[in-house]
Amino acid sequence: MPTSEAAAIAAELRTAMGKLTRRVKHEDRIPLGQVAVLGALDRDGAMTTSDLAADQRVRPQSMARAVGLLMEQDLVTRRAHPTDGRKSLVELSDTGRAALDAERGRRVGWLAQAIDAELDDEERELLARSATLLERLATH
């Protein structure tokens, strides 16, 4: 059972992170679900639609529609699976990689501007140390 102090910190942190996440999403140009698929392909490489659906915790039919939309926008491509002729792999296209990089750049750019505008040197140092702590918590 967490201490009352840990529970209070956790509640404040969850609220602050939620607000920050929602604010950063305002910079998005690509819908969140599509960015998540592009990010998974960037991180993990080519995958089948079924693997993507499992990764994103959605139904395969929903992922098939999402992949279709991404293909229409030339953000992903399909190629034959190297060992199973019945399957195909979805992979990030050059256009998709550029769009994902731009999306990430907008998010990071807004946040960097906010850090510069709102925080003094001491607060920036504290925030940098906090990022390490948050990463540690995320892997717990």
Explained architecture:
This protein has 140 residues and is mainly alpha-helical. The chain is built from 6 helices and 2 strands; from the N terminus they run H-H-H-H-E-E-H-H. The protein has helices at residues 4-25, 32-44, 49-56, 60-72, 94-118, 121-138; strands spanning 76-80, 88-92. Strands 1-2 form a two-stranded antiparallel sheet. Helix 2 crosses helix 5 and helix 3 crosses helix 4. The protein is elongated. The two termini are 16 Å apart.
Mean pLDDT: 94
Work out the helix count. 6
Topology pattern, helix = H, strand = E: HHHHEEHH
Structural category is mainly alpha
Order of strands side by side in the largest beta sheet? 1-2
Low-confidence stretches: none
Main pleated sheet: 2 strands, antiparallel
Q: Give the end-to-end Cα distance, rounded to a whole number of Å.
A: 16 Å
Please give the share of residues in helix.
over 70%
Total strand segments: 2
How is the secondary structure organized here?
Elements: H1 4-25, H2 32-44, H3 49-56, H4 60-72, E1 76-80, E2 88-92, H5 94-118, H6 121-138
Antiparallel strand pairs: 1-2
Helix pairs in contact: 2-5, 3-4
